[in-house]
């Protein structure tokens, strides 16, 4: 079986400092849910990637725990620092703190569990990823926190029965598994490209659009795409305390993972009970806006988190006359 790899992505720019809410965070309407969700406080997202820069000023207070499953750092399990850059970028889109400096993530008060499964060169063994998924399911935080979302911006051409089984176990335990669709797209909606674990039916497979809501020409299209998110020239945290604009379905994925970190506490508060993964999924899909592409390209459309609030406002205006 071939290795699992970072889905190839493009680095558009590396920036020393910035102070802005990234366009993608605005496009998915994250800020409109911040007040009623307290920015995702209490949610824990497991990021299965290249690690995370542990002392990045935008991220250091967001990291709740972590583990290294690779052979990097002489196989030191407790060193899950990022020596590639990709994992740090993904982490920022999910959880970069709102402090008026740098960038801000979709769920700025959520916590991240950093599981390093890809080495410095961006590749890793399927076994490491399976072990990381299993670890995420067993993990408990200092106050009994559990992982509710697993974010994976990685992929390979081969199916793995064992990885599939681990993912199904996660779903059964109420954990949403969010995966990148892959960047092997040919710009045509009617041809299918598959990368695993993204193409498994049980995961939430994410394709990419640009900031004008146009489908990215590289995004994989297939019959298992669930929805799309911003993935072109996405600004987020990077190594050495810097920031970078990266492009790929890898960058779209954490928008959805962060969105779920806001959505899960919100809808569980509304329904006053814990909800299954399928129920959470249906709440997510209710908050998508079709963009006019085929289902194989955009799935249910672009995640627009404030959609239900807008519908309620519209409806109350309509009924009050």
UniProtKB/TrEMBL annotation:
Keywords: Hydrolase, Protease, Serine protease. It comes from the Bacteria. Belongs to the peptidase S8 family. It holds the Pfam family Peptidase_S8. Gene3D superfamilies: Peptidase S8/S53 domain. Residues 40-289 form the Peptidase S8/S53 domain. The lineage of its organism: Bacteria, Bacillati, Bacillota, Bacilli, Bacillales. This is Serine protease. GO terms for molecular function: serine-type endopeptidase activity. CDD domains: Peptidases_S8_Subtilisin_subset (cd07477). The active site is at residues 49, 86, 250. InterPro entries: Peptidase_S8/S53_dom (IPR000209), Peptidase_S8/S53_dom_sf (IPR036852), Peptidase_S8/S53_subtilisin (IPR051048), Peptidase_S8_Asp-AS (IPR023827), Peptidase_S8_His-AS (IPR022398), Peptidase_S8_Ser-AS (IPR023828), Peptidase_S8_subtilisin-rel (IPR015500), Subtilisin_Carlsberg-like (IPR034202). GO terms for biological process: proteolysis.
